Amino acid sequence: MATNQEDVKLLGATVSPFVCRVKIALKLKEIEYKYVEQKLGNKSEELIKYNPVYKKVPVFIHNDKPISESLVILEYIDEIWKQNPILPNDSYQRSQARFWSKFIDDKIVGASFKTVFTIDEKEREKHIEEATEALHILENEVKGKYFGGEEINFVDITAVFIAYWIPLVYDITNLKLFSEEKYPKLYNWSQEFLNHPIVKESLPPRVPLVAFFKARYEGFLAASK
Amino acid sequence: MATNQEDVKLLGATVSPFVCRVKIALKLKEIEYKYVEQKLGNKSEELIKYNPVYKKVPVFIHNDKPISESLVILEYIDEIWKQNPILPNDSYQRSQARFWSKFIDDKIVGASFKTVFTIDEKEREKHIEEATEALHILENEVKGKYFGGEEINFVDITAVFIAYWIPLVYDITNLKLFSEEKYPKLYNWSQEFLNHPIVKESLPPRVPLVAFFKARYEGFLAASK
User: Fold this and answer.
1) What ipTM did this prediction achieve?
2) Residue A23 at interface with chain B, using a CB cutoff of 8 Å
3) Which overall architecture, per CATH, does domain A5-80 show?
4) Higher per-residue confidence, B100 vs A42
């Protein structure tokens, strides 16, 4: 258990779903930590020092040793602090949790972002199709209350992107990528998940989040003209 | 330890670097297994049954329970069979091994393939630049005999792609993406690694591998005309 608050630090950005994953994990484990918000587009010396390869958030720093990549950070946190496990105990179940988290990152995150940030209409249609197909595959994987069963786990935390960030696509472009009608089980999961007290406290406020992405989208459109 | 050979099965394809990773891990652990070669472009019922999401090799099947994604398989194998560990024992070192393996997959594998299978010359230049930059970053990470120190580990096994598959780019397109002059440390590592007895026994023979990718490349060029 971290007793010295100075030992645990997170370099983050409020708008990032990847940072939010780490926040949820730390709250779940009841780890106190120092949070340092990074300015986007203006890389701090600390960020460059601790994540020289990508210069991106999140960076998790434990006793001055930095770790990047949100899923790698979650694995580390789960190994170091044993309370309220994130990964299942059984090795096969762990492999499946890793598989589905990777699936969300590889097949859903990128395609969903691109349904907003793509100019070419044909290309955009392709990304909509990709994201839709991947969400359908995941829909069939919802079996219990959470992906983790009765408790949230690695896949639930990864999927915060689906529950909270994908609905923003509608606010920005009017495209209903994620809806109750299309994905009833995934939608129910998202409602349960977003109402989990730990998750609720870890989410960035919605209004400024929408404003941030709307501004990004408008900037993107202006630059593409 | 797997005592019954029937319990451990690998669906693979000789030409796949991802399958080769699993083969190296299984040989390192001295696990006996049944290997079933898959015909590319002609998905077997077994492949579709055991990897319905991607329908791709490798699929590792342990007591009828399938796992896909080579790095997920390596983690599983390392958890189930403790002898000759693949991941470091220390959690921070484990996180770094995971980070660099993910780096290889995200930044080197795709870009390297695309230096061959891209028609547009500008696009191709971009992929060459990406792969070159990523290899330079990795060059600075070579510190001991192997990435794992005195023994091969998770990163070395992931990087079999660099040691054995990237040099094929030269055979196919005459582009020297990976050379001793440009990456002396990475090149020395590759020679040590390829001469490791476990690795040596796990690699597919080079001549048919070159022939396979040459034929693919010619097919690709013909289809792009």
Assistant:
1) 0.96
2) no
3) 3-Layer(aba) Sandwich (3.40)
4) B100
